[in-house]
Amino acid sequence: MALGCLVPASRAVLKQRWRLILPPAGVLGGRPFFCREESSPGRPLGRGCCGAPETTSPSFGFLFDIDGVLLRGRLVIPAAKKAFQKLTDAKGRFRVPVAFVTNAGNCSRDDKAEELSEALGFKVSPEWVILSHSPLHLFHQFHDKCMLVCGQGPVEENARKFGHGTFLVCLENIYKKMTGKDLKYEALIGKPSTVTYRYAEHVIKQQMESCGWTSPLRQLYAVGDNPMADIYGANLYNRYLQAQAEVNVTAMAAESEEHLEVQRNRSISVGSAESCLSILVCTGVYNPYGDMPGDRNENMLETAFHGHRDFHFDPSLVEASHVVNDVNDAVELVFQKENWKQE
């Protein structure tokens, strides 16, 4: 077993390569603990990311899951090619804002962007890719902290694997066994956390600004294949947005807002979208002919929900706003709802 610790003597290396570090926190399937920073979080997106400003600026944006929506393994789902022909111009520049939101954490944003570029046939910028640990950009108080990384193999490789949900379950039970108390986290990130969707909204708004789209962001459409992560998270964030519209909410739903310290980074603004609608596709995890128990109130928690203990299960949050066959149908649905004309 390899055992590594980043100590003050390695501070220069820490700042150069491991800028975003958080004590144990995460969701099942995510790896939100340790992140190598490939690009500056505050760096504006390049002007080449999108086409010329539309006659009418888009007031909506897409949040696409990757596995099961755009790709199966490393193979592109055919509907994804069709969808992005609608979303991009002849030069591969977006006509509307797009971000890619995944719970993957076993690679860098640059690697994931390169994978998407090869699969989809146009240049995908790393700034548009949100991995499970990407929202750590928000947690300034942990950027220069040291942490212990343990596992088998190289330290850098283990650092990306440290957040497996199984490990969290073991850690929580050992901690409670030793102390008699529940282990408390600073925050949970990765889908279905609202922190992740808030960060995704920030990325969308940065892209709109860099592209010269002046309309305020009104609507987010989250497209995914997993009811327990993609749909649950989008609906949870939509609930937060609705509550924010009614009252001046200062805390994220199910998370501690005080740890985000948003005011320390003015480039990260609070949520402004009116709503976040969920669209479920049938090309991945979701099976429209099974999986969900007939009596949801009685059996759903036991048979389907495998989320983290701190996410209180609500059956209504796994019900998608829309269910479509694939991502191409999802894009067509949104364009129809938004009355968006394709050029």
TrEMBL record:
Pfam families: Hydrolase_6 (PF13344). CDD domains: HAD_like. PANTHER family: CDP-DIACYLGLYCEROL--GLYCEROL-3-PHOSPHATE 3-PHOSPHATIDYLTRANSFERASE-RELATED, HALOACID DEHALOGENASE-LIKE HYDROLASE DOMAIN-CONTAINING 5. This is Cat eye syndrome critical region protein 5. It comes from Phrynosoma platyrhinos (Desert horned lizard).
